[in-house]
Amino acid sequence: KNEVEQSPQNLTAQEGEFITINCSYSVGISALHWLQQHPGGGIVSLFMLSSGKKKHGRLIATINIQEKHSSLHITASHPRDSAVYICAVCYGGSQGNLIFGKGTKLSVKP
Amino acid sequence: DGGITQSPKYLFRKEGQNVTLSCEQNLNHDAMYWYRQDPGQGLRLIYYSQIVNDFQKGDIAEGYSVSREKKESFPLTVTSAQKNPTAFYLCASSTGVPSYNEQFFGPGTRLTVL
Fold first, then answer.
1. Which of chain A's residues have a Cβ under 8 Å away from the Cβ of B33?
2. DSSP run (H or E) holding A20
């Protein structure tokens, strides 16, 4: 069974800092998703990737297939980035469904 | 506006009562999903449906039931057989399997069983 591990569990940063959240998984996957959950509970999909790197605004997601590792970076962090960031993977044994990490709670202080 | 709606946002029920959570989407997505979220845990899949009139059990289906009579709707019933029903429930949809498709999530329903 694939396990998805995220680190750190909690992260506090000052506004403007560069943020990195890590995700590791144990078996080969077909896709990895990064999601953002705001305090009200709603979840937004940030990225879906299977190789390389994707960028959207101040957010960058990378994946290293050989090392089974992905990172989510936030440049010039802002208090509105405060949320829980969730990594989820899709692999053959999950019938195409997502297996979720426990999330990283980010708090950006002004 | 296209999206997923879940109602109600907060729901309270007495122990032993069945309760149905609503999920509607107007994104014309074939696939729909129900997840449960508990504090300190990742989302867990309850049921999913890849097409109308068909659905499959997820990892924690015991004590839950679903139907998919219309493409737009995927209601979840939490039955009295669910031993610990208090949780945050999220519905999602996608055009196809998550290997190749982004999932869109609803705002969630927080169920509290008293």
1. 97
2. strand A19-25
Query: What pLDDT is recorded for position B40?
Result: 86
Q: Which tokens belong to B114?
A: 């008293």
Q: Which stretches in chain A have pLDDT values below 50?
A: none
Please report, as a single letter, which amino acid is at residue A104: T
Tell me the average pLDDT of chain B: 93
The sign of the CA dihedral A29, A8, A77, A73 is negative
Would you say B44 and A99 are in contact if contact means Cβ atoms under 8 Å apart?
no
**3-class DSSP state for residue A77?**
coil
Tokens at residue A14, please?
């000052």
| B40 chain-A contacts, CB cut-off 8 A | 102
Q: Does A46 lie at the interface with B, CB-CB under 8 angstroms?
A: no
Contact residues on chain A for B110, CB-CB shorter than 8 A = 41
Query: Which of the residues in chain B have pLDDT under 70?
Result: 1
